[in-house]
User: Which sequence fits this backbone?
């Protein structure tokens, strides 16, 4: 029998309304913030704040590197990965809240 864990993880990350709204807001944040800021640098701060719980851990090595192309690539990769991690965690929370306790056999 096939293992459905990868499919379930993708479904939790991308196929529920809470995760989709979160990913849409994070993806559109640079477009929404950049007209009111001086440039792309402050829009990156907003992205880091929007992906805050996991981006704080993933961006720690980025604080010690310089302004090279690899550092920029790592910075944006860490922001995207932290947005996906947060969307997965939001999907887990959404599934836990929507779960029916009667269907699990839990009775009070």
Assistant:
């Amino acid at each position: 029998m096939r293992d459905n864990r990868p499919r379930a993880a993708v479904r939790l990350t991308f196929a529920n309304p809470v995760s989709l709204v979160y990913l849409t807001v994070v993806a559109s944040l640079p477009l929404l913030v950049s007209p009111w800021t001086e440039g792309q640098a402050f829009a990156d701060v907003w992205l880091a704040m929007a992906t805050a719980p996991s981006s704080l851990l993933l961006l720690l090595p980025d604080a010690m590197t310089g302004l090279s192309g690899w550092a920029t690539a790592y910075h944006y990769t860490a922001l995207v990965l932290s947005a996906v991690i947060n969307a997965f965690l939001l999907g887990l929370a959404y599934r836990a809240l929507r779960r029916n306790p009667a269907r699990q056999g839990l009775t009070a």
In short: Residues 69-98 form the longest helix (30 residues). The mean pLDDT is 77. Helices lie at 5-14, 17-33, 40-50, 52-58, 69-98. The two ends are 35 Å apart (CA to CA).
